[in-house]
Design brief:
Helix 5 packs parallel to helix 6, helix 15 (411-418) packs parallel to helix 16 (441-454) and helix 17 packs parallel to helix 19. This protein has 515 residues and is α/β, with parallel strands linked by helices. It has 2 domains: 2-272, TIM Barrel (Alpha-Beta Barrel); 281-510, TIM Barrel. Helix content is 44%, strand content 16%. It has an 8-stranded parallel beta barrel, surrounded by 9 helices. Strands 16-15-14-13-12-11-10-17 form an 8-stranded parallel sheet.
Length: 515
């Protein structure tokens, strides 16, 4: 089953284990890796490195990876490893990779941020997650993944924090003492640095150069914050050793090679303490972050039976819609709605940016994700956040795989929020909320322009005063990526019919040329 890594890392973090990432260089290795994962009932990151394109072309790798991923029932992430050429990375995304790595670790910090951020914006607009690297994991005397004798540079906490916040990456590879290729001795792992970074960052951490790092070292890495650990050299060495065994014919040689690959991967699954991951259907009901979209936002008007009835009707209409439909609800109703609907993106009306632990009365991202929530609204005028609270909430939502919809009042505030890289910005002048008066064309045009100048990856929602299907139509036609409604729906004579008509208005507006 081909999937993104977001939900896998969230579960791995919650249950405290790592998932192996194995580089495939041909159909045989891809087949053995995925079949081994299937036989054990465990998830896998099936990785293809840009440096291996001389052995296997990108187009071939995409076809092979998707083919074998779809043949098994366990979650498989098709990941581009150590991408350095932006054109190559974008082609991998076009071909169907569900995760990509942009490795700018050999560049200056500023250049690394710039190239990584550009890839993040492109990948996210196509629904693909991105791994970045800060610090530099070098290579040993003999390496199969890059230049030999390439020196490592440890990752610092300050760099890791600044890099993560500046780029919007989904996972981060850090350097704590490992290197690619074959070691001449056991490496010294800086666990203090790992703990320091894991404590401060919300994004999942990745370890490169896992081969021959030592089982106890790797087990400890998995237990102390690494969610993805790359293994390649040990697989190749084991297969080569098996190839030395005398065999009567080629097919016997092939069997030996498969045995070598399988034994090493099985061994590391045990070392990483990888656990089965069963993705519920509702984990696949996530926002594609695509244009257009519509939000049904009952606020505190509806709860229990009444919220459920509207959600069921909206779910039926959303099935026929060719766009995302969000539905917000009270916290106590979220799980029931997620369980009973198939086509809505269930959205929380607030979330606190805290980790599990001490604290009373907070709404944690972990609990929302567990309930089946896929998106969250933040900083609404009726539930405002401080800057530090907003940053923490966005970071936490990203870590658990929840889409962020952040509210902005003025053009100035919209520009400031855009720098925090949320998924969607809801532009809504506070004075227009509940008035039935929509934002004028100049406000829509200016907020769209200013936000997109900062990041074309952020979707812009305009929803002030939306009360009729005509309002929906004109707002989308004026250039908004999405819109939504509260009072126009919940106070209508027939709320479900109003939802139907507003969704139809979105469809009609997208058929016209945007003005």
């Amino acid at each position: 089953m081909l999937v993104s890594s977001t939900e896998l890392f969230h579960i791995a973090d919650k249950k405290n284990f790592a998932i192996p990432a194995t580089n495939f260089i041909d159909a045989l290795t891809a087949k053995v890796y995925t079949e081994t994962a299937e036989s054990l009932g465990l998830p896998l990151i099936l990785a293809y490195a840009e440096s291996h394109q001389d052995y296997l072309g990108l187009e071939e790798a995409a076809w092979i990876g998707k083919h074998y991923a779809e043949k098994v029932s366990v979650p498989i992430v098709l990941h581009l490893d150590h991408g350095s050429d932006p054109t190559f990375i974008k082609e991998a995304i076009r071909l169907g990779f569900t995760s990509v790595m942009i490795d700018g670790s050999s560049l200056s910090f500023e250049d690394n941020v710039q190239v990584t951020k550009s890839i993040v914006e492109y990948a996210h607009s196509h629904g693909v997650v991105v791994e970045g690297e800060i610090g530099h994991v070098g290579s040993n005397t003999v390496s199969y993944e890059g230049e030999d004798n390439d020196q490592s540079q440890y990752t610092t906490l300050s760099e890791a924090k600044a890099f993560s916040q500046s780029t919007g990456i989904d996972s981060l590879a850090i350097s704590i003492g490992t290197a690619h290729g074959e070691y001449t001795g056991k490496p010294e792992i800086n666990f203090e640095r790992l703990n320091e970074i894991d404590k401060e960052l919300s994004v999942p951490l990745v370890l490169h150069g896992g081969s021959s790092t030592g089982d106890e070292n790797l087990k400890r890495c998995a237990r102390e914050g690494m969610r993805k650990i790359n293994i390649f050299t040990d697989l190749i060495v084991a297969a080569h050793k098996e190839a030395q065994t005398q065999t009567p014919h080629y097919m016997a040689l092939r069997d030996n090679l498969e045995r070598g690959f399988k034994e090493v991967l099985t061994h590391y699954y045990h070392v990483f303490e990888t656990q089965p991951i069963e993705l519920k259907d509702d984990t696949m009901k996530h926002s594609t972050k695509s244009r257009p979209f519509f939000m049904i936002n009952p606020k505190s008007y509806l709860t229990g039976k009444h919220a459920y009835e509207l959600a069921i009707a909206a779910d039926r209409y959303a099935e026929a819609a060719d766009f995302d439909v969000y539905f917000t609800a009270q916290y106590v109703d979220l799980k029931a709605l997620a369980d009973q609907t198939n086509n809505l993106i269930i959205t929380a009306q607030h979330m606190d940016g805290i980790h599990l632990g001490r604290g009373m009365g907070f709404v944690t991202g972990d609990s929302l994700k567990e309930a089946g929530v896929s998106a969250v609204m933040l900083n609404h005028a009726e539930h405002p956040l401080t800057l530090s609270q907003l940053v923490a909430s966005i970071d936490k939502a990203k870590a658990v795989g929840i889409t962020t919809i952040v509210c902005a009042d003025s053009v100035k505030e919209a520009k400031a929020i855009a720098m925090l890289a949320p998924d969607i910005i809801l532009c809504e002048p506070t004075e227009l909320i509940g008035t039935g008066q929509t934002s004028d064309a100049s406000y829509i045009e200016k907020t769209n322009e200013e936000i997109r100048a900062i990041s074309s990856d952020i979707l812009v929602m305009q929803a002030a005063g939306i009360t009729t299907p005509e309002d929906v139509y004109h707002t989308i036609a004026k250039g908004a990526d999405g819109t939504g409604c509260t009072s126009g729906i919940v106070l209508a004579d027939n709320p479900s019919v109003m939802v139907r008509d507003m969704l139809q208005a979105v469809t009609d507006a997208t058929k016209t040329d945007r003005k």
